[in-house]
Design brief:
CATH architecture: Beta Barrel
Radius of gyration: 26 Å
Distance between the termini: 31 Å
Oligomer: single chain
Number of domains: 1
CATH topology: Maltoporin, Chain A
Number of helices: 2
Structural class: mainly beta
Length: 759
Amino acid sequence: MYTQKFSVFLVSLTLGLVSITSISAQEETLHVWGKQQDSRAASYTNPTSVITQEDMVSINVTTTEDVVKYEPSLVIRRRFIGDSNGTLGIRGSNMFQTSRSMVFADGVPLHYFLESRWNGAPRWTMVSASEIAQVEVLYGPFSAEYSGNSMGGVVLIETAIPQEREFHIDGTFFTQEFDDYGFDDNVSGFKGFMSFGDKVGDLSYFLSYNHLENDSQPQIFLTPGRDEPSGPSTVANGAIIDSNSTGSDTIWFGDTGVVNTITDNYKFKLGYDFGNWSTLLNIAYEDRSSSRDSANSYLKDEAGNTVWSATNVEQNGQNFFLSPKQLNVSEADRESLSIGLRIKGEISENSQLEFTINRFDILHDEERSSAANPSDPDYTSAGEVEEYKDSGWKTAEAKLTSDNIGATGVQLIAGVRHETYELNNIGYDSPDYASGAKGDIDNLSGGKTAISAIYSQLNWDINTQWDMAFGLRYEHFKSYGGYYDENDTTTPEFELTSIPSNSTTKASPKFSVGYQPTNDWLIRYSIARAYRFPIVEELFSQYEKYNSASIANPELKPENGLHHNLMFDKLIEGGYLRINIFQETVKNVIESQTDNITDPTTSVRTFVPVDEVQTSGIEFIANIMGVFNPQLDMRFNLTYVDSEITKNEPDPALEDNQFPRTPHWRSNLLTTYHINTQWDVGGSIQYASNSFGSLDNKDKEDNVYGAQDAYTRLGLKTAYAINNNTKVSLGVDNLTNEISYVNHPWPGRTYYLNMSYDM
């Protein structure tokens, strides 16, 4: 189906290009709302990294998270193109500590503070990669403007605001190879994007549509359940005997098959300037569906029939139980709507006021799963349906910025912010899962949180060499309305248990001092206290489904972090060299652990507080345009991190262990060679050392499903401008076709073909 749709799109694109290539392109004017940090000013309290459109030219960009995947000390766990679980980790905050990193697009939150771990990925698809003008990454919680959710960092995405009439269309086809365990096939997909914008007087508008469709490699490889085999045995063969992540011999009998995903994004932006004031309305609607209906059983009985489930399977003298739910099928649909408004203007010669409000609603989110595979002889229409109701968030903020307060070089930033989050999850037994029929309620849980904050930061440029910044953020947190089901099936009522409300207040001081011994050197030390409050899922989400379960913990305390950063920055011709030495000590660490060893048929997620984790690290960054050759640009970074559990009284055996999913080494290299004004070629390298996936550090096996592998991934790209309007590019990621796992498999070798037209 995707190939037919892509063919129609490609033909339409080609005809469109042929029909309008005679139209001359107007010179592009790029305008964004946000401004980059001034690295030589007192307000520059966070180490930053900025990515512009020129920096993106050698990245095979399909979705928004691709833009930042080569940035220092940062990882995106995107298992395949179109993955809804593209989690973000920065520095000492691993890829599953999703509520420790913040993402904004045009001031609108994309971070998803309703859920955590794989469900807590930012909603990257609410902004299209093709509309991005620049991205800035702020490292650590050193600015009072951001909450303790910035312990890892903040990603600030700015999209272009039209200054004249413009039309853009692009299409990308991609295909990957994957061969491991019992799966060997190619899977493919495509992305299509088109936008139109204009500015008429003081009014600017922008409309866009982004369509993404892809088939993924299998994401889960299956091992037998822990139930004891019983009854007559079914003699079979085909299962693979190999190690699991802890090194134990394991039977791998199947995989969950290809996942097909389709995501449509509709965007409308409306800007208006009046006097010294500007407004920007941002509306984004996402319609996403996914289907997993091609599970693979590797087992064949003596007659050559596929074995989908059995209470007693025998292979080479080994007997095991094969649960029907492991090879089931599922479909999921979700619709989300985000509305954001930014208003900014001058209230005096030296003062500026800015307001932002945002509302994010889950309009529809439903997953339908079967109790067995449709090819299983015991298959029926029975299954389960899970949905989210009345879930989303609201945020509002007002910020005042005043320059030269009382003296030249003194800036005051002060603001207030309020945000509320609500999550409600309902699970039903279903007599007909495919139609979404809802029977009896099987599980029900939910709750709300709210955070109110007031903050202030004084930035003081003392003289040409010295500057200081003093900040304080004061926050009040409340959790309320929590509940979970505790139903007694012998009574007609459906019983719920209410969870008591809880609240706390915290103050987070910040301090930074900078020294410039010469015009090209900057030394800066920053220190900050930060509190990361627990999110709704961690406090209230209780459910049990066929293949997963979650156990919440309403007694969780806020994470309490003390963060340091010492930076040495040297300006050189064409760019800069930078070293960051950082340390983080975080108490009451909320770690989400998933146990699928005890029972491979069900992943059980818990939220476990760890008393204290200490992370120390050093980054080296070299971003240089015209390195060695005026036509060669380079972005290079290398990070070493040591993250240890330093205190854990409930289980002292965990002390001195490495914190999960935190590799010691990460490195990225991105290069671009400008052959001429029309033709660019580039190369990239991503490297990470191996790590652990569990707190006990027992998962030491490499290159198996469930492992946390080291990987080295090479990429190439060439882009050619046919004329002022039309561009074409070819690229490849994972050139060596390395198969590696970060619990789930990373993609195999992936090829890209892109065509774009601007008018």
